[in-house]
Each structure stands twice: as C-alpha cells, then as structure tokens.
Protein: Inosine/xanthosine triphosphatase
Amino acid sequence: MSSKPLRVQVGSTNPVKIDAARQTFVRLFADTDIQCHGIAAPSGVADQPMTEAETLQGAINRVAYCRKHQSADYYLAMEGGVDRFEHGPATFAYVVIANQQHQSVGRSANLPLPLVAWQALCQGEELGDVMDRLFDTRNIKQQGGAIGLLTNGCESRESAYRQALIMAMTPFLHPTLYGE
Structure:
C-alpha cells in the first residue's frame, strides 16, 4: 500500500455520493489508502435541476466550492438532473472531477422517466420525492434512487455515479494521452 494517503473531497454529504466516490477511487487506486470525505457544498442551482446545462453547472459549482474550502488531491461532485429530450424526459447525472491543475467532466446514461414523474417535476417537485410517492418508499435519493426503483434493482444511483466517475477519471489516469 502506498505510504501517502489519497485525499478525495466530495461536494455532498449524501452517503450514496460519498460511497460512490470511495468505491471508485478504491477500485482505481487499489494499493493506496483512500481518505474520502463529504462536505455540504452548495450547487448554486435549483434543488431539482431541470436542464442539462443547469445540472452541469451545479456539479461545477460544487467542485469550485470544495477547491476553495478544502485541501485534497481530488475534488469531485455529482449532480443529478432531468431534462426533456427528443425521445422523452429522462434523468441523468453530471460528474466533475478536479485536482489542483485540471478538471474533467463526465455524464451518466439517461434513465427514461415516466410522464407522470416528469409532470410532477415540472410542477416543482424533486425527483426523489416523486419516486417516494409513486413507489411508496422513503428517502430513496439516499438509497437506490429512481434508477433502483425503475430498473427493479438491477442498477442504482450509486452504480450510475461510479460508472460516470470512472469515465471522468480517464484524463487523470492517462495524462499524456490527454495532453495534460
């Protein structure tokens, strides 16, 4: 194991996001002591981002806050959002990862949303609250999320975050290929 720990700062106190970050870094840096912590970092956007642009901006803002207020090797944020696309409404997440020199952006896959959920979101509700009501669950956003409910547990909010984080880490894993 590497003697110097790798410090990872997550721009959220949501345990799903912190666990996704921890698992991602443990997987990518197997022989390193990973110290992963969350901080309440404001997104600067609506609690329920309704566009791709707003969702991305929320993740960027959270990382900027972490960089300003914490000392770490990596700073990262995951921001879930929704939008209405040509093929229908969907939820997704943007992830932003930064160190002192560089920043990388990744995005999860789209999860199609039922029209009833989209309509509730357009009325000002948050996706987690809508899913809790539709599936009779409680605080699903800090568990499997809409993804877990709509895929019958085959995937989860955390698994979507992990995949997006791994993809966003590629410029840090292969800096010469990315011109870093």
